[in-house]
Amino acid sequence: MRRIRIIGIGAGNPEHVTIQAIKALNTVDVVFVPDKGVEKSALRELREEICRRYIEHDNCRTVPLKVPKRAAAGDDYRGSVDDWHAALAESYERLFRDELGEDQTGALLVWGDPSLYDSTLRIIEAVRARGLAFDYDVIPGITSVQALAAAHRLVLNRIGEPVTITTGRKLAEGGFQDESGTTIVMLDGEQAFAKIDPAGLDIWWGAYLGAPQEIIASGPLAEIADDVVRTREAARAENGWIMDTYLLRRRGQ
Ligand SMILES: C[S@@+](CC[C@H](N)C(=O)[O-])C[C@H]1O[C@@H](n2cnc3c(N)ncnc32)[C@H](O)[C@@H]1O
User: Fold this and answer.
1) Radius of gyration of the chain (CA)
2) Which CATH number fits domain 145-250: 3.40.30.10, 3.30.950.10, 3.40.50.740, 3.40.1480.10?
3) Which of 48, 97, 101, 122 has the fewest CB atoms in 10 Å of its CB?
């Protein structure tokens, strides 16, 4: 039976790749490499670098996986994501059928870890639901949240308190809600941290975590939010892309 290995590769440093992931990579015949266009080419290059560095045999092929652009969400965010997943499931199915022999193994290299704000596992289940029989397993990776905590030498939770992981979109909609705990924000293309009431909040921010361009900043949100917005904009212009994550917490509790 065909087999797909879904491998977390860490958040931007080839040295995040675990020994378990390296062993898994060395069992595969084909690595499917998502191609999201020019702005994401840096991310594709990291995946290619990982294959070059860690796959020891010569009979592994890489096959590009064209990722269709998601339609603008409009009022129906869930609907646009569902349509996008359906399109992806169709192209994954075609590739698995065309590029993998009946007894071959393919790998999907997932940024960070597949359990966190990543749809690969949902899409894989959708491919199975379409009728293609294959087995799959998951190899965990270091998430951008762990990379953020390490870069700032932070413990994520206050003693006995919760940690919420959310998106920029949700933070912009609801403001900071986590009075005694910690909120970690990902997928923030709109700099929501600069739109909420900053009084009493501290931020620990990081971009390109684990990569050579890594930038971090921390301090009272009211004092550093504008600087972070400027730094972020300049870095995005220089590199052509940016990924950032941050942690927010009410001071002194
Ligand atoms: C689609 S999610 C993928 C998360 C990934 N599965 C993980 O485990 O970190 C993309 C978001 O992850 C965060 N992210 C991923 N890599 C990052 C990095 N190297 N530095 C900062 N943030 C990163 C950003 O918030 C980005 O918008």
Assistant:
1) 19
2) 3.30.950.10
3) 101
Q: Confidence class of residue 79 from pLDDT cuts 50, 70 and 90?
A: confident
Least confident among 30-44, 75-89, 100-114, 131-145: 30-44
Q: Which two tokens stand for residue 31?
A: 């690595």
Is the beta carbon of 112 within 6 A of some atom in ligand 1? yes
Is the CB–ligand 1 distance for residue 10 below 6 Å? no
Instruction: Provide the residue count of the chain.
Output: 253
CB environment 161-194: b (16+ within 10 A), e (fewer): eebebbbbbbbbeeebebeebbbbbbebeeebbb
User: Per-residue pLDDT tens for 146-175?
Assistant: 999 999 999 999 999 999 999 999 999 999
Q: Is the CB of 89 under 6 A from ligand 1?
A: no
Query: What strands lie across the sheet with 30-35, from one edge to the other?
Result: 61-66, 30-35, 105-110, 2-8, 134-139
- How close is the Cα of 245 to the center of ligand 1, in Å? 7
Ligand 1: does its nearest atom lie under 6 Å from the Cβ of 209? yes
Say which CATH architecture domain 2-142 belongs to.
Answer: 3-Layer(aba) Sandwich (3.40)
Q: Which amino acid is at 205?
A: W
